[in-house]
């Protein structure tokens, strides 16, 4: 892992010196919000995928948790660009994070400062490169997605991922790559770090945002691409057993990109590898992020080697 300098409250610091105090509020109470973004080395140069949308979601997540990040969206976007350019990486994973820092101890976070960092590192296919073609084996998790009006699922908050961590650990310990969470009412929600699509008879189905899923930016991109191809995409309640009789199932996310599911609870899905519609979604998505063919204006091209600040 390349240890690139980290943007920390407006200044660059060496990777090894980007430290916080052990009494940082976020360490004790989970008071952080973050984003996961990718910069791709496209055929037309390095570019960040849906950069403004990710940074706006970071600000919105902070607003939900009453955290004023202290930066405009444009300032945060520039911080990300400067961090990538300074790193010299042509492709990387990007992690902006805002958190409540060291101050008074207690559940009330108001008197703790809000701090913000941007870090970048090299990161390949999240579920393995072979998974993009052959798919992954998953199970339905024993842990449910949080119920509405318990945690704000529209916020990409650090504390929310305790739930996801339990799901991921159980999956790995049971020999699977990932877990699929159900809602508290037993409907299909999402993976531990991915949104989920089911394909049946040529129609794509996905859970609604009202089911406490994260409204994923890659999810939105895939829905846009599918509808522009003339495919039907429906948001609605999906019963667990629909997973087992699906023609195709696939995950979407910044890290997972578009990853097919090969089996669920040892039920083989379709032909046990990437299906036709999943393949079309992958091809359309990768045509944008790998080849730079971007009719939607989703790519922010960046001048690697020309940071705007020191």
Provide a descriptive summary of the structure in words.
With 310 residues, the protein is of the alpha+beta class. It contains eight helices and 17 strands. Strand 15 and strand 16 form a beta hairpin. The mean pLDDT is 95.
Search tags:
310 residues; alpha+beta; D-amino Acid Aminotransferase, Chain A, domain 1; D-amino Acid Aminotransferase, Chain A, domain 2; 2 domains; nine-stranded mixed β-sheet; eight-stranded antiparallel β-sheet; 8 helices
Total beta-strand segments = 17
Ranges where pLDDT stays below 50 over 5 or more residues in a row are none
Strand content: 25-35%
Alpha-carbon Rg, integer: 20 Å
The major β-sheet equals: 9 strands, mixed
CATH topology assignment of the largest domain:
D-amino Acid Aminotransferase, Chain A, domain 2
Spell out the blueprint of helices and strands.
Layout: E1 6-8, E2 11-13, H1 25-29, E3 32-34, E4 37-42, E5 45-49, H2 51-64, H3 73-87, E6 92-100, E7 114-121, H4 131-134, E8 136-140, H5 161-173, E9 178-182, E10 188-191, E11 195-200, E12 203-206, H6 217-228, E13 232-235, H7 240-244, E14 248-253, E15 257-264, E16 267-268, H8 276-289, E17 299-301
Parallel strand pairs: 8-9, 8-15, 12-13
Antiparallel strand pairs: 1-2, 1-7, 3-6, 4-5, 4-6, 5-17, 6-7, 9-10, 11-12, 11-14, 14-15, 15-16
């Amino acid at each position: 892992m390349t240890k690139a300098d980290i943007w920390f409250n407006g200044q660059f610091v060496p990777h090894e010196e980007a430290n916080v105090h052990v009494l940082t509020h976020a360490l004790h109470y989970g008071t952080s919000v973050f984003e996961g973004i990718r910069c791709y080395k496209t055929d037309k140069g390095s570019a960040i995928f849906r950069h403004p949308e990710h940074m706006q979601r970071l600000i919105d997540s902070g607003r939900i948790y009453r955290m004023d990040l202290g930066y405009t969206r444009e300032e945060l976007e520039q911080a990300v660009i400067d961090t990538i350019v300074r790193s010299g990486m042509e492709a990387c994973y990007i992690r902006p994070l805002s958190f409540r820092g060291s101050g008074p101890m207690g559940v009330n976070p108001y008197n703790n400062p809000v701090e913000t960092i941007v870090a970048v590192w090299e990161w390949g296919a999240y579920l393995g490169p072979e998974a993009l073609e052959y798919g992954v084996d998953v199970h339905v998790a024993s842990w449910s997605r949080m119920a509405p009006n318990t945690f704000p699922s529209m916020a990409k908050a650090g504390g929310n991922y305790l739930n996801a961590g339990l799901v991921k650990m159980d999956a790995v310990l049971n020999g699977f790559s990932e877990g699929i969470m159900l809602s508290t009412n037993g409907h299909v929600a999402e993976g531990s770090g991915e949104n989920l699509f089911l394909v049946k008879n040529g129609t794509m189905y996905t859970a609604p945002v009202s089911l406490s899923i994260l409204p994923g930016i890659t999810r939105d991109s895939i829905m846009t691409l599918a509808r522009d191809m003339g495919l039907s995409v429906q948001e609605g309640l999906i019963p667990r057993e629909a997973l087992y009789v699906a023609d195709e199932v696939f995950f979407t996310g910044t890290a997972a990109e578009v990853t097919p599911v090969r089996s669920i609870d040892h039920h083989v899905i379709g032909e046990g590898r990437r299906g036709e519609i999943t393949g079309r979604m992958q091809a359309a998505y990768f045509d944008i992020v790998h080849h730079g063919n971007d009719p939607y204006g989703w790519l922010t091209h960046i001048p690697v080697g020309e940071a705007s600040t020191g």
